[in-house]
């Protein structure tokens, strides 16, 4: 029985740059958003959810089997390696069956373990719970943490006295981002969210005083910018940063006097990004001011704008971070797309690059809270190697393994193989692809392949390990990550070549990678399963419009598919801040025409579409619920076939889906079961 709901068509017409736009499903946006109370809208979303449940009813045993497999690979009582910070060791741990962590500490001098934060208790009775920022005062007396209990990403800050165990009555609502203590732990610095879900103000709260009396340290007037606070590693300075996707500006406040006049490092300049660390009276600054591969410069605190080059940009090394310590500094970056960690001496006497053993991997600094250290904590994993935490002796290079990810149900690395390929795009650019597959995988095009992509905001997708992924590999799938343009996998120029007027590159890269994998025998058209979320969901929407016959099944999670209408509406959360990524179609006709040319919602066509699973979150502030709802409605009314088309809206969750480590596994199990079902029918 076909239970698919049919949405009403209520045309809404607008004219932009002389072009008439008709939107039959604009009514699915509740005018009271972020409150969604319109009965017709809620009824439609519930009908879509019911259709989803009807389709998945016969798949329930498979979903449960995959879920139990995934759960069985997770060490239920897992704990992090204790990390020393001052007089305490800190760690976090799950209990068997627990969805959320407990946070612990123990005196370095010896003594009993002390529970400092109990997430399971905080989450009890809630449909959704997420812990945001968490920070301890340097003296270990105070804990500040932020919670979100509806998925809206508007966090409330709470403050706990760890000596008495009591919470202060101070509760700071409408926050987002890091929390920073001043030097003597009498005040907390935080970012406040405005009505447009933009952190436009950094404030200081003095313990025990009314929140209404909090002092504004910085306010950002540009509607396209967001701001926030952080602490330099030496804990001498509070850094207040503001910017958008392409430009940044940093001010420094003394941690022992945050009400002092701020020290502006360098005024904003369109297209110039920089981050700041400190060492004594010297600033260490990573910036793209002269090259998209970034460089490292230094400057005296007395003249922070006077930059001197310390490490010049290199064409094959993408420098993306610097961490200062008392006796050395660490540079992190990527060479040909692979993570690198380098230790540098301040006197320039030597550079040590830490070696990693595999040809494709993900690695970097782990937690290193202390300033004066002789060893570093590193993290490492690959698509076939479970994550490990190790300690690296800076003087000798000796490495000590502190923890290896345990897989209780068992894992045999020899059963799997991984490769890093370079496949040609249609313009001749070679696109990196990370692939993992069963060791006995026949490269004859007979097997299904799961292809993941994102390609936006300069976000690289690392070739890391996934226990959940094994449920596909053990059923004969290969799994691949397409490191397409729009991300910064190969440097910032890689990002620039996939955004704005070059946005089409991201979409065609993904298609060309898919075809290249087929040519290499990893799969064949119709046996490819594609997935992406948010901007990666936009990617899914484009490629099923342009190449619908290539895909055997597609999953689009919280997909950004109504790009044109969203970018035309500056009243929506985040829209002005998104213009540097997508273009401003309000003022720029060329941007309007370009976005209109690829926008998934605008380009739904009268042709066959592959089986499609779509997810949304009712309280999602990043990709609003009506984007996937409108898209699915238009697809259902326009396409010429009746392949499964499913929309699941989490009515009590936001952009990240359901909370809790096991609930998120169940949603992944649903996606995998959908793909397996469709491949069995192919």
Task: Pick out its properties.
single chain, alpha+beta, 8-stranded mixed beta sheet, 4-stranded antiparallel beta sheet
Write up this protein.
The chain has 682 residues and is of the alpha+beta class. It has twelve helices and 38 strands. The strands form nine sheets. An eight-stranded mixed β-sheet has the order 31-32-34-33-35-36-37-38, sandwiched between helices. A four-stranded antiparallel β-sheet has the order 3-4-5-6. It has a four-stranded antiparallel β-sheet with strand order 7-8-9-10, with no helix packed on it. The model has no long low-confidence stretch (mean pLDDT 96).
Assembly state (oligomeric): single chain
- Indicate the overall shape: globular
Number of beta-strand segments: 38
Poorly predicted segments: none
Tell me the distance between the termini. 21 Å
Average pLDDT reading: 96
Q: How is the biggest beta sheet arranged?
A: 8 strands, mixed
- Which radius of gyration do the C-alpha atoms yield? 25 Å
Strand line-up in the sheet with most strands: 31-32-34-33-35-36-37-38
Discrete helix count: 12
Proportion of residues in β-strands:
25-35%
Based on secondary structure, the structural category is alpha+beta
């Amino acid at each position: 029985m076909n239970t698919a709901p049919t949405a009403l068509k209520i045309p809404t017409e607008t004219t932009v740059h002389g072009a008439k736009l008709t939107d039959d499903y604009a009514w699915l946006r509740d005018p009271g958003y972020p409150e969604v109370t319109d009965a017709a809208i809620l009824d439609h979303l519930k009908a879509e959810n019911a259709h989803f449940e009807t389709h998945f009813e016969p798949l329930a045993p498979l979903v449960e089997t995959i879920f139990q497999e995934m759960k069985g690979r997770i060490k239920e009582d897992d704990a992090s390696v204790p990390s020393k910070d001052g007089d305490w060791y800190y760690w976090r741990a799950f209990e068997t069956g627990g969805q959320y962590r407990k946070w612990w500490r123990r005196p370095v001098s010896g003594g009993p373990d002390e529970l400092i934060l109990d997430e399971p208790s905080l989450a009890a009775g809630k449909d959704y719970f997420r812990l945001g920022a968490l920070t301890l005062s340097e003296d270990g007396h105070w804990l500040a943490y932020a919670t979100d209990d509806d998925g809206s990403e508007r966090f409330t800050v709470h403050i706990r006295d760890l000596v008495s165990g009591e919470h202060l009555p101070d509760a700071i609502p409408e926050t987002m981002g890091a929390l920073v203590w001043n030097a003597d732990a009498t005040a907390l610095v935080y970012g406040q969210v405005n009505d447009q879900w933009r952190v436009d103000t950094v404030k200081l709260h003095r313990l025990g005083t009314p929140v209404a009396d909090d002092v504004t340290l910085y306010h950002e007037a540009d509607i396209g910018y967001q701001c926030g606070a952080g602490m330099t590693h030496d804990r001498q300075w509070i850094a207040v940063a503001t910017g958008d996707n392409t430009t940044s500006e940093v001010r420094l406040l003394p941690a022992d006097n945050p009400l002092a006049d701020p020290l502006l490092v360098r005024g904003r300049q369109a297209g110039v990004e920089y981050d700041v660390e400190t060492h004594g009276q010297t600033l260490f600054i990573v910036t793209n001011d002269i090259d998209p591969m970034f460089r490292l410069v230094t400057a005296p605190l007395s003249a922070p704008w006077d930059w001197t080059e310390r490490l010049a940009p290199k064409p094959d090394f993408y420098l993306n971070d610097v961490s200062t310590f008392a006796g050395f500094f660490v540079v992190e970056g990527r060479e040909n797309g692979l993570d690198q960690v380098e230790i540098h001496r301040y006197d320039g006497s030597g550079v040590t690059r830490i070696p990693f053993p595999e040809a494709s991997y993900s690695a970097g600094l782990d937690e290193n809270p202390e300033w004066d250290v002789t060893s570093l904590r590193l993290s490492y994993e690959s698509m076939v190697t479970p994550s490990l935490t190790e300690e690296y002796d800076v003087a000798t290079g000796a490495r000590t393994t502190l923890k290896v990810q345990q897989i209780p149900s068992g894992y045999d690395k020899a059963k799997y193989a991984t490769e890093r390929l370079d496949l040609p795009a249609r313009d001749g650019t070679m696109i990196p692809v990370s692939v993992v597959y069963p060791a006995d995988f026949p490269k004859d095009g007979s097997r299904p392949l799961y292809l993941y992509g994102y390609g936006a905001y300069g976000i690289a997708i690392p070739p890391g390990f996934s226990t959940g992924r094994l449920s596909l590999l053990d059923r004969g799938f290969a799994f691949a990550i397409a490191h397409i343009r729009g991300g910064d996998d190969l440097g910032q120029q890689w990002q620039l070549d996939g955004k704005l007027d070059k946005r089409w590159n991201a979409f065609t890269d993904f298609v060309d990678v898919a075809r290249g994998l087929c040519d290499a025998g990893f799969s064949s058209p119709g046996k490819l399963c594609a997935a992406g979320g948010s901007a990666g969901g936009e990617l899914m929407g484009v490629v099923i419009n342009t190449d619908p016959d290539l895909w055997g099944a597609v999953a689009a999670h919280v997909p950004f598919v109504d790009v044109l209408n969203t970018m035309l509406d500056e009243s929506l959360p985040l829209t002005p801040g998104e213009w540097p990524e997508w273009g401003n179609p309000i003022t720029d006709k060329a941007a309007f025409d370009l976005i209109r040319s690829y926008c998934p919602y605008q380009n739904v066509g009268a042709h066959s579409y592959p089986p499609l699973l779509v997810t949304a979150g009712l309280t999602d502030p990043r990709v609003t619920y009506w984007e996937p709802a409108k898209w699915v409605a238009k697809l259902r009314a326009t396409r010429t076939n009746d392949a499964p088309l499913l929309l699941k809206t989490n009515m009590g969750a936001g952009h990240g889906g359901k909370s809790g480590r096991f609930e998120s596994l169940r949603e992944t199990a649903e996606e995998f079961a959908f793909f397996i079902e469709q491949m069995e029918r192919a």
